[in-house]
Amino acid sequence: MNYQRKQLSPDLTPLIDVVFLLLIFFMVATTFDDKAGMKIDLPKSKLGKIEEVNEKISVLIALNNEMKIKIDKKTGSNIIEVTKESLKENLEREIGLLKEKRVAILADRGIDYGQVVDVMADIKDSGAQAIDIETKGTKGE
Q: How many domains does the chain fold into?
């Protein structure tokens, strides 16, 4: 009797499906850096994290050759860079869209205290009801 051997080849379709599912999972589960390319050295604090608020605006202040200010709108829009002069009007527009009028400041530890106070005054004048100063925690963070 003459037996012919059949060439067996594995079906790769399930393997490809699994690879795509893993790719989608990792894309969805990835957290992105919310500092928008700004190197900010936050001061350390022994305090715990403040309560997380879904809707808030973050004002990022970095120390470079000149002071850079960016507004991170957690309402779904992207980050915009503003000047010190246009900060107040941009914040008024964005704070008006929030239910809880809360703004967080992420300021580099090397920035002059007076500049941070000036930004805080602009934030308060823009209609913010609460200002959070974010720090780098020392308790296991």
A: 1
First to last CA, the chain: 73
- Site of tokens 């594995």: 10
Q: Is residue 67 part of a domain?
A: yes
Range of the structural domain that residue 131 is part of: 44-137
Q: Is residue 21 part of a domain?
A: no
SS3 percent helix, strand, coil of the chain, rounded to 5, is 30, 20, 50
**pLDDT tens-digit map of 29-47:** 876 655 555 566 666 776 6
CATH number at residue 75: 3.30.420.270
98: closest CA among 59, 56, 48? Answer: 56
CA distance 107 to 119: 10
Tokens 């941009």, located at residue: 90
| Structure token pair of residue 64 | 């470079």
84-124, pLDDT tens digit by residue? Answer: 888 888 888 888 777 778 888 888 778 888 888 888 888 88
